[in-house]
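Aim 2 progress update. The chain analyzed this quarter is reproduced below.
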Amino acid sequence: MTTKNLGPCLIIGCTNTNVQFRTITELAYEKCQRKRTLEAYPYFENTFASSIDMLTKALYYQQRREGTNLELDPVNFEQMIETINPGLKGFFNFMTEAIIPKERSAYSINEAKKSIVGLCYLIAGLRNKFVNQHKLEVGLYLRASDVTWEAIDTMSSLGYSMCTKTVDVYQKKIQQEHSAKIANYFLEYVI
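Predicted structure tokens:
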């Protein structure tokens, strides 16, 4: 007696009983989309959670593997995440359409897109604590603005900034690196 295959992978007329179909491969799915032989099933599309996971991995790769700086320009940010992970195509536009009302002026929309870039960094930081360059930059900005340590710690507890100890350690590291660069410059070009 053959068992009936149930669920989203039901294959009608299959007489081969020893083959089990579990999932469609990404390559097969792309081929079907190009040839338009596959109906659009919502469970094949990226969910919001999977997009956040891909975004987190893309920003982690950008910050920790490549060591590049934050990208705060919305257009460049969108291009960057789509280049790192093509599965994120349209994600930034999805976030923009979900958050920004269409009635706003063009200037307000562009300014709000900058906030969405920050929101993307914060969401990725919630998912992976090592995607934290944005929080560190906020902490350094607050410290440079002579904000009290208590205020920085409050921002840290809200998830918007790094804690004061981390900001202080990184600030000292920047100062030491800067002093070393200046000393090397004078040794190389002046003396």
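The first helix runs from residue 26 to 35. The mean pLDDT is 84. These observations will guide the mutagenesis experiments scheduled for the next reporting period.
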